[in-house]
Design a protein that fits this description.
The complex is a heterodimer of chains A (about 375) and B (about 280).
Chain A (H helix, E strand, L loop, with lengths): L4 E4 L3 H10 L3 E8 L2 E6 L10 E6 L2 E6 L16 H4 L3 E9 L5 E5 L7 E6 L1 H14 L7 H8 L1 E7 L9 H4 L11 E6 L2 E6 L2 H8 L4 E2 L2 H16 L10 H7 L5 H4 L9 H5 L6 E7 L5 E8 L9 E2 L2 E2 L4 H20 L9 H4 L7 H9 L17
Parallel strand pairs in A: 2-8, 8-9, 9-10
Antiparallel strand pairs in A: 1-11, 1-12, 2-3, 4-5, 6-7, 6-14, 10-11, 13-14, 15-16
Chain B lengths: L7 E12 L2 E8 L2 H6 L7 E6 L3 E6 L10 E6 L3 H6 L7 E8 L12 E6 L5 H11 L8 E9 L6 H8 L4 E9 L7 E2 L16 E6 L2 H13 L7 E4 L15 E2 L2 E2 H4 L2 E3 H8 L5
Parallel strand pairs in B: 7-8, 7-11, 8-9, 9-10, 11-12
Antiparallel strand pairs in B: 1-2, 1-6, 2-5, 3-4, 3-6, 12-15, 13-14
The chains are: A alpha+beta (about 375), B alpha/beta (about 280).
């Protein structure tokens, strides 16, 4: 049985101080360029007090209210993906010595203990998926591993949902379920706090808290229920891998040709997208070189380039790859869907393409007149 | 622990021009311990690295029992392969591998082999054929079917002539376009399938080449009632990492670099027949 504590609002700075005293660099949500981003944080005043996010397909707006709450926003564009899977990082460098020999040196990241405040249930679910991708394979990624093991996660139970949220449909929220060290649930006058790990408990022990009252826990539950009830987006009934496999030649894909810009925004904001480009650079004197990895998008034609041709040359093929991977083939690869219901791809799509609507359209039988049988004779 | 993505230094110990745009590099890791620990199976690949330019996945074409060096036959297609072609004996480059799942040379023992190669991708199958001929007793009849676009594209003609001399080996060559001195067939590789003698219930079909040809061969093999799990395909996709991390080589749920590049037809059946998957 977990013990719940109550941390008064005017004591919240003590959490930041305790994390700092324990040696963590503290990262938390802040308003930058009209969006919530995660950035280094030292004072409670830097948190987005009273900020709500209004989200809709192709729309993200912040609104200042007098609520006084610090975590009434839901999701920013970033998630916490950049903290573990760096947007660009050097994997190794090489040096050509005067005798012609080549020396390769791995460049592990200089990760330091980092505490992240304000991590949502969807972000934790995405992190757990990335753990499976980057760590639980024959070749665990040393760069991801180093950053990951230095993270302390202070999660927040969502007490409201944005219109784009659908974590209840994916089963990932709004309640944080696993993978966090401390969980906060915000009330008007403070926070119900719960520790999930020894590291989290050590921080909690350093705070001036009181035992959470029954009515405070009831308010948290009511907030979680409210957040669930606010969600209107749903996923089609039944198994999506089979649905998408059956829909591989569905005429609906062609409609993406007139809508999708293949800009890759959805893959950049998606907390589970992991595709990479590896980039090599040579120094001006030609003696040293670096091999970097950076985020890539399956919407880039280069992603599937192979000597002289592009496998997914057409826009609908690239959208199909993204959606089919995320909701379909991902299940065979990682034992679950690659979507955690955060809704970022809906809000940050410049033309407002909504994955839940696309899946709904694909779940419906195509008009026979439009359906095209796969042609076994065709050569890509 | 060094990450799997960091190359080791290797040295060019031999090189040979095969055609104006194809060459072979014989490589050896400069660290003797790395070289001694290196093992691979037929059909696996390495990542060859020119620092500052990048890496390319290249099939290994030497025999797995050859421990002194590792052979690669490379076509000059892009900037990295063109620059690999400029390397001389003694030059250094980066090498990491082997990666992926190769041909099922053990599972195929005791069966008739049908090795079908199309287009320009013949180096991996040539090494597979040499592997089989060096272990002739382990396999049944061997049918070698090689299709090229133009008769000029066939390299290593003398090897095909030598293979014909082996007992229980049949060689069929065909070109989409043949010039006047082309002594073999013209047309698709599938034209031979009705006449070649193999046991559909005890055979292994290995296919390497363009996907259009693969589909045609699979159809013909289905007509001869070869089970889909006895047909293997070596696939090509864009690859940056070779360890199932960069996501680029996905084909349905498969990472070609890690789960392949050799797959059974059954594994890929849901994806092979759709454009742009």
């Amino acid at each position: 049985m977990k013990v719940h504590h109550f941390l008064a609002r005017d004591r919240f700075q003590t959490l930041l101080d305790a994390l700092g005293a324990a040696g963590y660099e503290v990262i938390g949500p802040q308003v930058r360029d009209h969006a919530i981003v995660f950035a280094p944080l030292s004072r409670v005043g830097e948190l987005p007090e009273g900020i709500l996010d209004e989200q809709a397909p192709g729309r993200y707006r912040l609104e200042l209210t007098d609520s006084g709450r610090l975590f009434d926003w839901t999701t920013g564009p970033q998630a916490i993906k950049p903290l573990t899977f760096a947007p660009r990082e050097t994997l190794w460098t090489s040096e050509r010595q005067p005798n012609g020999r080549l020396v390769f040196r791995e460049r592990p990241p200089e990760a330091q203990p980092t505490a992240v405040i304000g991590v949502r249930a969807c972000d934790l679910a995405a992190l757990s998926i990335h753990d499976r991708h980057f760590l639980h394979d024959a070749h665990p990624d040393p760069h991801y591993r180093e950053r990951r093991r230095n993270l302390l996660l202070v999660a927040v139970n969502c007490q409201r949902s944005a219109a784009t949220c659908f974590c209840t449909a994916t089963g990932d929220g709004p309640r944080v379920q696993h993978g966090y060290d401390l969980a906060l649930s915000e009330l008007d006058d403070g926070f119900v706090v719960e520790a999930h790990t020894r590291e989290g408990q050590a921080i909690l022990d350093a705070l001036e808290t009181t035992p959470a009252r029954h009515d405070q826990l009831e308010q948290v539950e009511a907030g979680l229920e409210r957040a669930s009830a606010q969600q209107t987006r749903r996923l089609p009934e039944g198994a999506l891998p089979e649905l998408l496999q059956a829909a591989v030649e569905h005429p609906h894909w062609q409609s993406l040709n007139d809508r999708c810009l293949t800009c890759g925004n959805c893959t950049a904001v998606c907390p589970t997208c992991f595709c990479q480009t590896h980039v090599d650079a040579l120094s001006l004197d030609g003696q040293t070189a670096s091999h970097d990895r950076q985020w890539a998008s399956c919407f880039d034609p280069d992603h599937s380039y192979i000597h002289g041709s592009v496998i997914r040359a057409e826009r609908p093929q690239r959208y199909r790859q993204w959606l089919t991977h995320k909701f379909g083939t991902w299940v065979e690869q990682y034992g679950r869907s690659g979507c955690v219901g955060c809704g970022r791809c809906i809000a940050w799509c410049p033309v407002g393409i909504d994955v839940t609507e696309e899946l709904d359209a694909l779940s419906k039988a195509p008009d026979d007149a439009l359906a095209k049988a796969p042609d076994g004779e065709e050569t890509p | 622990m060094t990450g799997a993505l960091v190359p080791f230094e290797a040295e060019v110990v031999g090189r040979k021009d095969e055609t104006p745009d194809m060459f072979s590099l014989q490589l050896r890791f400069t660290d003797p311990e790395v070289q001694a620990a290196y093992r691979f199976t037929m059909g696996q690949f390495n990542m060859l690295c020119l620092p500052g330019m990048g890496e390319v996945p290249i099939s290994i074409v030497s025999d797995p029992d050859e421990r002194e060096w590792i052979d690669h036959t490379i076509r000059k297609l892009g900037s990295i392969t063109k620059n690999l072609g400029r390397l001389e004996v003694g030059d250094r480059l980066g090498l990491r591998g082997p990666y992926g799942r190769g041909w099922p040379t053990e599972a195929a023992e005791g069966t008739d082999l049908v090795i079908v190669t199309g287009g320009l991708g013949c180096a991996p199958s040539v090494s597979l054929i040499e592997y089989v001929l060096h272990r002739r007793g382990r396999y049944g009849r061997l049918h070698i079917i090689q299709g090229v676009k133009h008769s000029n594209d066939l390299i290593w003609r003398e090897r095909y002539d030598a293979w014909r001399q082996h007992p229980d080996v049949e060689v069929y060559l065909t070109a989409d376009t043949g010039d006047t001195l082309w002594p073999w067939h013209v047309g698709p590789v599938t034209q031979f399938f009705e006449r070649i003698a193999f046991d559909p219930a005890r055979c292994s079909v290995f296919i390497c080449g363009p996907e259009g040809m693969m589909r045609a061969v699979i159809k013909a093999m289905r007509e001869r009632e070869v089970p889909e799990e006895r047909i293997w395909l070596s696939m090509e996709r864009n690859m940056h990492c070779a360890i199932g991390s960069c996501g680029r080589c996905q084909l349905g749920p498969k990472f070609v670099c890690r789960d392949g590049p050799v797959f059974t037809c059954r594994e890929l059946a849901p994806y092979l027949w759709h454009r742009g998957v």
